[in-house]
């Protein structure tokens, strides 16, 4: 029974930066995850947790109370370890500079981007939700600038998610495979449960919000019909939770493609490049899959602003390549 901490120490060569820094970063992520997990588990019991906070966030969406709680918990936890110099969150308009006397010292060298609670429309109905995180090295040597945050996904040094589902699982990559750890709530420890996660050879599932079918571009419509065709190993099974973390986790384990394309109403797609797509794309590639916006590799897209959206497709290489052929015949 390996704990997350033990696994990192034993595999210190997976990380090109000092293990101590990674351990401290993880200890703040673990702490925040446990605090959020505790609240998620009693969400039905009190009005303090479920429902809207009454705030419209930077995404123009109705912020849930738990979104706000998760955002605050992550910020406080990441600030306290003296290792992170800046944080950007899907819930906050601007990036946050972590103040302190060591602000510009060598010690505070990491930039963290988070979606504190993804899939928040599922909170009130007891369906899986998640946290997504992404870590870069700072570029600036003195004061933080927007360039520290607008780095391409291929510069990520760590990315992962926590899924609050039938159990709570933390999954991460540092560029040496994808590893998953399940929380044992009785002792409050994450244990290695899913080493070396990889997409299976079998292609089984397609995940897309088909209710938007009439608003999809033709290539996407044709691909959906292809998935439903009785031929070769098809039809595929349709599965869609509406929680990126949950849909991604299932597809990586069972073999499936996740698609959030541009639509008539969201011409740039819905998902955010920095908080959602880049970390999931890093994990996808490390699990042997492919992540694309339909034409370009997600990890090579140049970010122009913090809350940029992009169409997002990820899954087994053959399925994603097939969809790209339908988009660009
Ligand atoms: P959120 O960050 O506001 O929670 O939105 C992101 C979520 C993803 O988890 C999910 O895949 C997608 O939005 C679902 O959107 P839709 O309801 O349009 O299908
Ligand atoms: Mg989100």
Automatic annotation (TrEMBL):
Residues that, per the record, bind Mg(2+) 1: 90, 115, 117
Catalyzed reaction equations: beta-D-fructose 1,6-bisphosphate + H2O = beta-D-fructose 6-phosphate + phosphate
Record text on cofactor binding: Binds 2 magnesium ions per subunit.
Ranges where the Fructose-1-6-bisphosphatase class I N-terminal domain occurs: 3-195
Entry binding sites for substrate: 118-121, 209, 240, 270
Predominant cellular place of this UniProt entry's protein: cytoplasm
EC number: 3.1.3.11
UniProt binding sites for Mg(2+) 2: 115, 118, 276
UniProt cross-references to InterPro entries, sorted A to Z: FBPase_C_dom, FBPase_class-1, FBPase_N, FBPtase, Fructose_bisphosphatase_AS
Pathway: Carbohydrate biosynthesis; Calvin cycle
Subunit structure: Homotetramer.
Family from the record: Belongs to the FBPase class 1 family.
Protein name: Fructose-1,6-bisphosphatase class 1
Organism: Blattabacterium punctulatus
Lineage, opening ranks: Bacteria, Pseudomonadati, Bacteroidota, Flavobacteriia, Flavobacteriales
